[in-house]
Every structure is written in structure tokens, then in C-alpha cells.
Design brief:
Helix content: 25-40%
Radius of gyration: 21 Å
Order of helices and strands: EEEHEEHEHHHHEHEHEEHHHHHEHE
Oligomer: single chain
Shape: globular
Largest sheet: 8 strands, mixed
Number of helices: 14
Number of strands: 12
């Protein structure tokens, strides 16, 4: 997979928003590299406020980057109206709340056909809408044509939203919390649908979520985001079975099937206009708080020494001084350079 050229690539992306009343600008996305390859599902994971939705909106051209660039199919994203219209035919957005995504005055048919009409589709509109609904699992599709959103269940509404994305035959779908508002029984159906669409159509997807359990079930690769930056990334099984960053370990510890006691992080994520020096997680880090980082000799580095941006490739990487120290200890013991608990490559500090 890593040898395949990326379909979408994000390079050193920064997005800042002006501060209010003279406050410093908020660094919502503060240096992100991320690649998504054809047929690959990448989960972008993090708690609320970490910048993952801002990143997703930037990939759609809705939020131009302050610095850095987004590349699609080898070409930099052009932010002119005409270019964005052509781009959004190939990259579609699926939002969290289907009730808010669908116009209550439009029938299912009109909701799905809207994209075709915007892009001037000159084929058989009825057949295209029927095929999209059928692929999304609403069969027979004609039965849903004249129904309104309020007549559908939550799962059916989300399938209509997915059909509205599929009708344009996109190459990539950006799904922002696609099952967060659904019952547990329906969530599995929608996730299975996304996996089937990947297998049948070769569809790529970026799935934005706060739920590591969802990432485990659907993703090929996971990127864990904290305070505007990706702090751990790699193949989903490797990252989630042997997490190396303390933040990833804390997120995993609260899953129902996780062994041991949950890790309770102290305080709230820092203000993105006042990002701490050193490791941006250090003010909440359980490894630093319990003295383990000091025993590894990296406590000062955690507080004061910045870490490089992780690359967007498929390699397993972590931005953590403590994880790096463990890697070096393991390497010195004879495991070979660059491999540590979890089997990945750490980011060197600047």
C-alpha cells in the first residue's frame, strides 16, 4: 500500500484563525502531513476540539490553509470556484447528522439528484439516483423516491446522505463522524456499507471520529490527532494493539474491552492560541505526571523540546520523547534501530 502513490496528500498544513480582542491566533491545525491512497480507509481520531473537523473541511476546500498545501491526484488543490466544483465531484463529504444534512422539504429523490443537477449530469437521472440508493442499501430504490426525511429512520436518512455522495461516483469520501448520531444496532450496518463500497468501487475514505472502536472496525490506517497535530499514526492493528503515545493509550483505556483501569486525563486540552512548549500533550500526560518520563531521563525534553511533524506515509510513527527513549533502550538491547514497543519509527525531535 505504501508504494502506491497517494490519491490525496496533505503537506505541512497549518490553519489559523484570528484571535478575538487582540488575543493570539488560534492554531486549529498546526502542521499536518497525511496521505490517503486509492482504496484505503484512514481514520482520523481525537477528542473534540483537536482540529480534525477543521482538517476535514480544509480537504474539501471549505477552509483554505494558512500555509501548506493539499494535493489531489498529483495536482495541488486549486481554490477557484470552477476548480473546486470539479474537485468536489471527485471528493464528497458525508456529515455527522443526516437530519441536518437533508432539506426537510425535499424528497429522497431530489436530495440524491441534487448533486447531479449541480454538476450538469446529462445521462439518465432517474437510473443514476436509483443505482445510488440501491448501492446505499435502500431497496427497492423506487419505494423511497417520494418519501421525505421525517418519514425515514436515522439509519435510512444516513443511507440517503451516502447515496447523495455516491451518485457522483467520487474517488474519495470524507466522512465526519458518520455514525455518531445513530443507534448502536444501525452503526454496524453503516460501517459494513462503507467497507462494502470500498471493496466494490475502490472508494477511498477519510473517517473523522472520536471513537477508536470505530477506527478498529473500519480503517486500514489510523492517525491520532491532538491539539492540531498528528501524534501517532500507522496501521490500525499495530497502533491500537500496541499504542506508544500516552494520549493514544489514554483513549484506548476507556474502551469497554480494554484491560486495566481507564486513564483519566487531568484538565482540558490547552487553548489552541496558547500551545505549550515542548510536547503539546505534556501538561496532561500521565507518563510525565507519575514520574515515568523522569525515570527515562526525558522529563525536561517533554516540557521544552519540540517534536517534528510526522510524515504522511503509511509507516508507524509516534511523536513522543518517552516513546523515543524506550525505542533507543530497546535498540541498545539488540532489537535493532528504530523499533520499539509497538514496532514503529519514532519522530526525531527538532
Amino acid at each position: 500500500m505504501t508504494a502506491t502513490p497517494p490519491l490525496l496528500s496533505v503537506q505541512d498544513l497549518h490553519i489559523t484563525f484570528p484571535g478575538r480582542h487582540g488575543a493570539p491566533p488560534a492554531r486549529a491545525v498546526d502542521g499536518v502531513d497525511l496521505d490517503i491512497r486509492p482504496g484505503e480507509i484512514v481514520a482520523l481520531v481525537g477528542e473534540s476540539g483537536c482540529g480534525k473537523t477543521t482538517l476535514a473541511r480544509s480537504l474539501m476546500g471549505l477552509v483554505p490553509p494558512t500555509t501548506g498545501r493539499v494535493t489531489f491526484a498529483g495536482a495541488p488543490l486549486d481554490y477557484s470556484s470552477r476548480a473546486l466544483k470539479a474537485y468536489r465531484k471527485r471528493v464528497q463529504l458525508v456529515l455527522q447528522d443526516p437530519s441536518g444534512s437533508l432539506n426537510p422539504r425535499h424528497t429522497v429523490y431530489d436530495a440524491v439528484a441534487e448533486g447531479l443537477r449541480i454538476h450538469g449530469y446529462d445521462g439518465d437521472e432517474r437510473a443514476a439516483v436509483a443505482e445510488a440508493l440501491s448501492r446505499a442499501g435502500l431497496r427497492p430504490p423506487e419505494r423511497f423516491f417520494l418519501r421525505y426525511p421525517h418519514e425515514l429512520s436515522g439509519g435510512q436518512r444516513q443511507r440517503v446522505v451516502i447515496a447523495g455522495a455516491l451518485v457522483l461516483q467520487p474517488e474519495l469520501v470524507v466522512a465526519d463522524e458518520p455514525v455518531a448520531s445513530l443507534d448502536a444496532s444501525v452503526r454496524g450496518e453503516i460501517l459494513a456499507l462503507l467497507l462494502r463500497l470500498r471493496d466494490e468501487l475502490g472508494l477511498s475514505a477519510l473517517v473523522v471520529t472520536h471513537d477508536l472502536g470505530l477506527a478498529w472496525n473500519i480503517a486500514d490506517r489510523v492517525a491520532v490527532m491532538y491539539l492540531g497535530r498528528i501524534v501517532e499514526t500507522g496501521e490500525v492493528e499495530q497502533v491500537l494493539t500496541a499504542p506508544r503515545h500516552p494520549y493514544t493509550q489514554a483513549l484506548l483505556s476507556v474502551l469497554p474491552e480494554a484491560p486495566g483501569a481507564p486513564v483519566v486525563l487531568t484538565g482540558e486540552p490547552p487553548d489552541p492560541s496558547r500551545i505549550p512548549s515542548g510536547c503539546r500533550f505534556h501538561v496532561r500526560c500521565q507518563i510525565l505526571a507519575d514520574g515515568e518520563a523522569a525515570r527515562a531521563g526525558v522529563a525536561d525534553a517533554c516540557r521544552n523540546q519540540d517534536l517534528n511533524i510526522l510524515t504522511g506515509t503509511g509507516e508507524t510513527q509516534v511523536a513522543c520523547h518517552w516513546a523515543r527513549a524506550r525505542t533507543e533502550t530497546t535498540a541498545a538491547a539488540g532489537s535493532g534501530p528504530g523499533v520499539g514497543a509497538g514496532g514503529g519509527v519514532t519522530a526525531e525531535p527538532q
